[in-house]
Hints:
By secondary structure, the protein is an alpha+beta fold. Helix content is about 45%, strand content about 20%. The protein contains 5 helices and 5 strands, in the order E-H-H-E-E-H-E-E-H-H. It starts with a strand and ends with a helix. Residues about 125-130 and about 145-170 have low confidence and may be disordered.
Amino acid sequence: MPTARAGFPPELNSVTAARNFARRALTGWDAQDWEWAVSQVLTELATNAVIHAHTRFEVDLSFDGEQLRVAVTDGSVRPPVRRDYSARATTGRGVCVVESLAGSWGVDPHPDGKTVWCALRADDGERAAEPKLEAFLSHLDEFAAPVSAGSAAKAAGRRRQSTGAARGRAA
């Protein structure tokens, strides 16, 4: 079974580097059809490692032709938490994204951190490139609340007020 491993520093540009690493591994395994799903879950797992663990992290990939395992190990013992933020929040959906795309996922604690992993599986003989795309998109629809003209104007007013207040403090 082919495997690949790489380590990354706790920097936001490491998320892109991790995706590029995965892309190269998938190409080497002639498994490019899995790239979309791997990119989505790896973005979430690597971002969590950077933002929440603040430690170096490792990405491990393994592929047996029917299942692709993505694992991210970091130096924090705190497990990921599913959040229930408002529909307009810009954060807090990582676990939901992983759940919607992966056949299974979990956390393996270690004395010096944890490994968060997920398994992407082929559906009915098809590769897992986009078989769960519809489920993923419908899940995102739950968060897409319509914005009324009134609420958009209020938000714009708050932005103007906070910008003005920030200018006032700087003066």
